[in-house]
Structures are given as C-alpha cells and as structure tokens.
Design goal:
Layout lengths: L12 H8 L8 E4 L5 H10 L7 E4 L5 E2 L5 E2 L6 E8 L11 H15 L7 E4 L3 E4 L2 E14 L2 E11 L24 H20 L4 H9 L5 E6 L5 E9 L5 E3 L2 E3 L3 E7 L1
Parallel strand pairs: 1-2
Antiparallel strand pairs: 2-5, 3-4, 5-9, 6-7, 7-8, 8-9, 10-11, 10-14, 11-12, 12-13
The structure holds biotinyl-5-AMP.
Length: 265
C-alpha cells in the first residue's frame, strides 16, 4: 500500500543498535521519530549528567541548528542527524580540533557509502564537500553545567536522499545525487565508528590527525575570504591548519569564521 507522502524508509533501529554494539560510542542510544534538534536535546541531557558516548539521532530533525543561529534543513527522512556527547580527557585548549576530527570521520563515512575519495574534501572548519558542494555540516557545542564539568556535543548532519529540488541551498548536494548509498542506518553505523577511531587517535595526542586533516582539507592552498566573528573580513592565502586547529591565513591564525574559497593557487 502506498502512503500519502513519499517519506523514505525509517531508520532500522534494531540494525542500528546491533551495528553500534561493539563500539564505546552509542551507549546509550536514543532514536526518535522526530525532534527539533538532536544537539539541543543532547545538550539538555548533558546538563543533567548524561554519560560520555551518549548518541541521539532522529528520523526527522525539524529545526536543525547551524553555527551563528543559522539553520540546517533536511526534509523528513532525507538525511541523518547524529549528536554525540563527549567528555574528552584532553585539555580544553585542544577542543578546537573536535569539529575537524568530526569532519575527518564524516568524510570517511561518505567514502564508505561509495563516493570516490578524490571527490570528498573538507572546508575548514566544519563542512564536508563532494565535488565542492556541501553534503554535511558539523556543529560542536560546549556544555558546562558548572565548575570543571565540561562536555562537548558533536552534531553531524549528512544529506542522504535529497533530490535536486529539495536542496535547501544551491551549493548543497546529497549522497543520492553523487551516486552514493542512501542507506541511512548503515551510514550512522559507519559514521559513529569512524568518529570513535578518529577520537582515539586525537586522544593519543599524536600529529596523525593533524596530518590527515591537512592532507584532505580543500581550504589549504586556496585564496580565501574569511568573515570573522566580529563581522570584519580577512583576505589572503590559507597556508595551514595549526596545532590548535586554527586556519592560518597568510601568517594570521583564525580560530573561528566563515570561509569563502576564492580560487586555487
Ligand atoms: C552547519 O552550520 O553546517 C552545521 C550543521 C549541523 C547540523 C547537525 S545535525 C545534528 C545536530 N543537531 C543540530 O541541531 N545541528 C547538528 P553552518 O556552517 O552555519 O551552515 C549553515 C548553512 O548551511 C545554512 O545557512 C545554509 O546556507 C546551509 N545549509 C542549510 N541546510 C543545509 C543542508 N541540508 N545541506 C547543505 N547546506 C545547508
């Protein structure tokens, strides 16, 4: 029997739980039919003391948050929204790397979904691009219920089966549009697994994550215009990402900002 709307299949919750069972992330796991924002839900849980590794996901995120109060929009069932609560035993000064580590993990999951690795790049600090179009956005929010009790909510959204006319902005794309798998359940399993692996490497404090990021970051080597949080802009060539995860433009390290890729040098 056909339904009145063409909503893609729901997440296969038993398969999702089985696929995450061997990981330390994903326990506990909360799966909802719909919610406003998985990051908002998990931030509230973090305030109440939810444990490291808690994951929230939903079939339909109706008010997804982007950075700077922007929106991240996906029609019902067409994407994934995954938030993971971390209480990293790493000095706060290194937490600037979290969105970048999440970007590396998301890139791996997109490659596992069948997209050729040469097509998948990272735009500093938090976008994953396929053929230079945004397929995924990442939002890391710090939560501090009090004292030294800091946690991070790592939110990742990936466009899965959106058709051309469903893309919220012309510069976006989806796995379906680039020939990847549209199995959302598999994608979440691969994504959480990749996040766990990359976090372990980051925890170890090695330069491996930084080298891996620099190797696939599309922003490095480009002429860029960066809009800084105070509204001013900085033009120059992006030369590196430093040990704190900051983009180096010319000789100026930038901790946060919106980057426009102008052209390759
Ligand atoms: C982001 O912000 O891209 C972060 C998105 C994070 C979403 C995840 S989903 C799970 C978790 N729960 C949440 O509530 N959020 C996180 P930003 O870099 O500010 O980009 C936002 C901009 O991307 C918008 O202003 C649009 O231009 C564009 N955009 C909106 N929806 C998009 C989509 N589905 N695909 C590509 N671009 C999109």
């Amino acid at each position: 029997m056909s339904t009145s709307t063409d909503v893609p299949p729901l997440l296969d919750e038993p398969r999702l739980r089985a696929g995450l069972a061997s990981l330390s992330l994903g326990s506990p796991l909360v799966v909802t039919r719909r919610t406003a924002s998985t990051n908002a839900d998990l931030s509230r849980e973090a305030e109440r003391g939810a444990p490291h590794g808690t994951v929230h996901t939903t079939n339909h995120q109706t008010a997804g948050r982007g950075r700077l109060s922007r929106a991240f929009e996906q029609p019902d069932g067409s994407g994934i929204a995954v938030s993971t609560l971390l209480r990293p035993e790493v000095d706060l000064s290194r937490w600037g790397w979290l969105p970048l580590v999440a970007g590396l993990a998301t890139r791996e999951a997109i490659i596992l979904a069948g997209v050729d690795s040469n097509r998948v790049g990272l735009k500093w600090p938090n976008d994953v691009l396929v053929d230079e179009r945004k397929i995924s956005g990442i939002l890391v929010e710090a939560v501090n219920p009090g004292g030294d009790d800091w946690a991070a909510v790592v939110g990742i959204g990936v466009n899965v089966s959106l058709a051309d006319h469903e893309l919220p902005v012309a510069t976006a794309t989806s796995l379906g549009l680039v020939g990847g798998s549209t199995d959302r359940t598999r994608l979440i399993i691969d994504l959480v697994g990749a996040l766990e692996r990359n976090l372990l490497t980051w925890h170890a404090g090695s330069s491996v994550v930084r080298d891996a990021y620099r190797a696939v970051c599309d922003t490095i080597g480009r002429d860029v215009t960066v809009t800084l949080p105070d509204g001013s802009t900085l033009d120059g060539t992006a030369t590196d990402v430093d040990g704190e995860g900051q983009l180096v433009v010319g000789r100026t390290p930038v901790a946060a900002g919106d980057v426009i890729h102008v052209r390759r040098r």
